[in-house]
Amino acid sequence: MTRKRIGRIAIYPGTFDPLTNGHVDIIQRGSTLFDWIVVAILINPDKSPLFSIAERTEIANCVFDGMPNVEVDTFEGLLVDYAKRRNAKVIVRGLRAVSDFEYEMQMALMNRRLSPDLETVLMMPSEPYTYLSSRLVKEVFALGGSVEGLVPGLVEKRLADNSKLLPPFKE
């Protein structure tokens, strides 16, 4: 259930499958810039996530439990429609490398076309997380590598608990 928020509301959308320390870094720093930051977990029936939407929501709620201006929610459909429902004026996106820029720019411009009053703020992660992605975490874990320091401890534990459920890594 979402609550009505007042002030500068930012949406940080993603699948967060799994939530990484790069995501956490962006959310923590974003929470100092905005009155509220909503971690908006996308429900995408076309994807086969490692963690269910309920698990991803639970994990994010646990990780951000001590941050009173961070809220976890889920959404389907167009991000701009969700942002309007939440009275958000800002979308926060992480920008790890130059290779991310073209995609993020296209998304930001399309969102602006669909909702001219919605701004996109691109944030660079802290240096240790510039290469980190959920996809890489899943690949490393599936191949037996350590993800310690790449994901919150709770995610690392959940990955270990569900290791039999991981599909084999495919190139």
CATH class: Alpha Beta
Q: Any guess at the CATH architecture?
A: 3-Layer(aba) Sandwich
Distance between the termini: 39 Å
Please identify the oligomeric state: single chain
* Domain count: 1
The total count of helices amounts to 6
Which whole number gives the mean pLDDT? 91
Beta-strand portion reads 15-25%
Q: Which fold does the CATH topology refer to?
A: Rossmann fold
Q: Numbering strands along the chain, what is their spatial order in the largest sheet?
A: 3-2-1-4-5
The main β sheet shows up as: 5 strands, parallel
Concise structural overview:
By secondary structure, the chain is α/β, with parallel strands linked by helices. Helices cover 37% and strands 17% of the residues. β4 (90-94), α4 and β5 (119-123) form a beta-alpha-beta unit.
Can you describe this structure?
By secondary structure, the chain is α/β, with parallel strands linked by helices. The protein has one domain: Rossmann fold, CATH 3.40.50.620. It is built from 6 helices and 5 strands. The protein has helices at residues 21-30, 53-63, 79-85, 98-114, 134-142, 153-161, and strands at 9-14, 36-42, 70-75, 90-94, 119-123. It has a 5-stranded parallel beta sheet, with helices on both faces. The longest helix is centred in the middle third of the chain and has 17 residues, at 98-114. The N and C termini lie far apart (39 Å). The mean pLDDT is 91.
